[in-house]
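sanity check this chain:
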Amino acid sequence: MEIVSQEAIKQLLGLMDQVEEPLKRTFQNVHQGCLAETLARFLKAREWNVAKTHKMLVDSLNWRVQNEIDNILAKPIVPSELYRAVRDSQLVGVSGYSKEGLPVFAFGVGLSTFDKASVHYYVQSHIQMNEYRDRVILPSASKKYGRPITTCVKVLDMTGLKLSALSQIKLLTIITTIDDLNYPEKTNAYYIVNVPYVFSACWKVVKPLLQERTRKKVQVLSGCGRDELLKIMDYDSLPHFCRREGSGSGSSRHSFGNCYSLDHPFHQQLYNYIKEQSLICEPVGPVKQGSFHVDVPEAAGKGAEIGKTIQSELHKFGNGNRIHDSLDALKIEDN
């Protein structure tokens, strides 16, 4: 497989050498000097088919140019109160690094409400974190550890996941589509913790739909996952919601060391970086308010199928709960 892989990388590199401006410039922002690793990521996403990978990569570069993704880190979400509202409702942050030097991203899937701003702001925020990860965090980690670090670890907290998540599926499908088409294979492993029954029900039907390489990356851990996660990261890098078992596990938006908060060093550094870049790009005049609109392709293939499956399963779960509640009410009346 390794020989085939190297040959595929070599063939794809030959095709990418023919790419002209402005695609060549934006491709440099994508690979950040880790050319072979970047080509391998896209090849994995297309099962090492060089022709399909070349089309995927060129399409992604065109998307970047058409949507000015190279400039998105110079487009702050203003005013700061709006950005704080986005942070309070789109719970994500960096809690530290794994023992191998991979940044640890934490996601509050269950407690994210996505109800404080338009879809465009949440998509803008997500892409900004992707770009900051790829252009700032990963190159810095690579320099620190003396080797290419091009992927991250994600810990997904399902605390508070409810049927109301149904309203978020469209936005989450948009974000997933953007990642699948333009940031493939950036996650080394997914750890899912604090799992309620509603997630377990969905996971049983979604898991078979995932590609084998994705299934292998996903681990559903018991409880808050602390003991398992301590095998791959130090305690200081654990997300706050993984630090201790029980109801006080730190799932709150405001618990100590909360990496979701705008006051956390990661978000302070990110927001300050974006503000500095905006001054460099537009040194005169106030920063324009308004979201950064990005064209998002319609979800297709497995992504759309998974989204529909989750919706269907949540509907079933909801109907089951309503039937259960009705039976309880009849029992009360009978009594």
Residues 18 and 202 are 45 Å apart (CA to CA). The longest strand covers residues 187-193. The domain at 73-277 is CATH 3.40.525.10 (Phosphatidylinositol Transfer Protein Sec14p).
